[in-house]
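notes to self, project folder thing:

trying the whole complex as one job this time. last attempt i did each chain seperately and stitching them together was a nightmare. two parts in total, labels are on each line so i dont mix them up again. if this works i'll redo the older ones the same way
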Amino acid sequence: MTDRVPAGFCRDADGRLLVAGQAAEGWVEAAGDTPLFVYDRAILSARVAAFRAAMPAGLQLHYAVKANPLPALVAHMAALVDGLDVASAGELRLALSAGMAAGHISFAGPGKRDRDLEAAIGAGATINIESAGELERAGAIARRIGRRARVALRVNPPFSLKGSGMRMGGAASPFGVDAADAPQVLEAMAAQHFDFRGLHIFAGSQALSEAALLDAQRETVALAAELAGHAPGSIPLVNLGGGFGVPYFPGDTALDLSVLGTGLADILEARPRALQSTRFAIELGRWLVAEAGVYLCRIVDRKVSRAETFLVTDGGLHHQLAATGNFGTVIRRNYPLVNASRDGGGREIVSVVGCLCTPLDRLGDKVALAPAAIGDLIAVFMAGAYGRTASPQAFLGHPAPLEMLV
Amino acid sequence: MTDRVPAGFCRDADGRLLVAGQAAEGWVEAAGDTPLFVYDRAILSARVAAFRAAMPAGLQLHYAVKANPLPALVAHMAALVDGLDVASAGELRLALSAGMAAGHISFAGPGKRDRDLEAAIGAGATINIESAGELERAGAIARRIGRRARVALRVNPPFSLKGSGMRMGGAASPFGVDAADAPQVLEAMAAQHFDFRGLHIFAGSQALSEAALLDAQRETVALAAELAGHAPGSIPLVNLGGGFGVPYFPGDTALDLSVLGTGLADILEARPRALQSTRFAIELGRWLVAEAGVYLCRIVDRKVSRAETFLVTDGGLHHQLAATGNFGTVIRRNYPLVNASRDGGGREIVSVVGCLCTPLDRLGDKVALAPAAIGDLIAVFMAGAYGRTASPQAFLGHPAPLEMLV
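result (full assembly):
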């Protein structure tokens, strides 16, 4: 694999990587140390703008906080999107602190404890109900604290998002209520004093096929229409899920937003009468933030073992588990990475490893990079989503990585 | 897979799981919440005692802190073993705080930064040198701060531990110096003012074959003897590595320590003259602590999706990544787990999942458990090693797990 600097980043005349217009080394100086995650707020904003420009008017955009919960980044996103989706009481606090109104926060997750439900009801956030039992618990808590619970129903769809990195429909699942059981739970919502906010239907994630995404959206709208007759009144909002993938690997092609936007406009235009007054939202995490982030680590050692050259860095899987192929992947492939300190001298084949005492800790396996010296910075791209918080940060007792939104 | 309570644990007359003689629920009450890791210090002590009883007199036992760095547990182990092995400056501080003398601490890791080397040299810990370049840096730092650096050479052996869960020899590696290059680095050690402490040779980990372990130990002793002529004086200590596996899965058989002890006694007895005054150490992490720990989480929801029953807990892969099959494993298999609150009513097939919004978060896939109610505790065994710190704890913003050494 040869190195490539992805869109949004470039090199200066000396071959040094620029992030948000400044040399990577400059950001490290400003932060004070490596490893460092740098997130470019201009890329984040551009991403949201591109979505808005391509998608039908009135379509809501939600940010799934779990993709990157850095408080400054969540605050930046909160000002740009229409809602925040959270997966824990901790993320709920974060979303509220970011300035998002509780009415635009929805809380999903199969294992919400009573304290979590109480926090959401108390704050006025919408609870995506994952089971009949959870609805009962939410009702009891609401009565006890004298509040009306805002609820939406999460439905486990009978279809899945084809070609997605992670399928979330069409099979037995701990997430949501099977579509077949949904009418009953919707009727239970109607029978009690809930504030019904709509449906939440997820079919998968990390898909790079526009056709597959549109198929899933079409099926989702049809399913919502089928369920509408059972809902307590008209459906205010259908969260269509997201599933927009990003191109991690050579051969991956970025999604064509105009195809998605036109297709989704047609789907919504043709929606059944039962959904005429319904609003729709797309919930995105990875697609909004992954490409805005870069992970910078420094080469500590350079060594040759049995003719293989290793660049040993101060980074590793404790910050970038997915990039080492150890989280949710079957076949390990390299994330794009480059020597951020220089570009000249041709290319050499090296393996870039982290500082941990485990053979799993490999950021780049036999990649072609500009010949590197100890002290050079390595940049791993696609680091804006599922980085620090999706990694075993405490493993082996190394310091936490630094993070900057710039 | 049917459930089993592993050795060291049992149930009371009401079918409740006992941990260190007390009901699991009692430990949760004492800790104040779930999820909770409980580590049984009697099991830890018994493990060390069994090792001592079976192994040749004079063989040192080291504890690899990375397996479980809970400070109380490290302090408990420090009082029982002959040395602590650390993998970062953070673990070095922990080992010193646990009361281990610096002379009995060794520091391995391919990406030691100058500040890490300085911390080790300043404290008087032994640095396992991973490359010629690292030796040079250590020498320069020692001169600068006016200390003599204690160093051992980590050798990448030309053989590997057969059948090990993770091979660490016989191939190109970022760890240590290839055996072929070791003489040169040993001679560089002799040429400078280093305090030479010996060799550190790791061939793999998590092996369940006594024959394979003994083969690796035999080859390690032979390799050490070959290198002895290049060392700066006689070799004080050879760290033979560890690699002792533990039985995670049905069909796995625990190691027979007496076979290992007898075999290793023969190997050491027959060691070449060049190693007559050398002492030997076995470094163990997982084998010492894995079976002493249990992870307790509570069932928050019980639901059926497409005829599959799910028990949704408040635990998950953010605390127990390896148990969900997402860390260093190719084929997912269930760790032993039981309903810790009851044993009656026959068995039902259920899937036990965590509270995270990802299909990866599955602690038990179609396991046979005593029929469970919401509120019951689930116990996942083999949780003493590579649990909390080897998991993405911050993922989705849930609270940290609690830990108790009892």
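what i see at first glance: The domain at 10-39+291-405 of chain A is CATH 2.40.37.10 (Lyase, Ornithine Decarboxylase; Chain A, domain 1).
need to look closer tmrw
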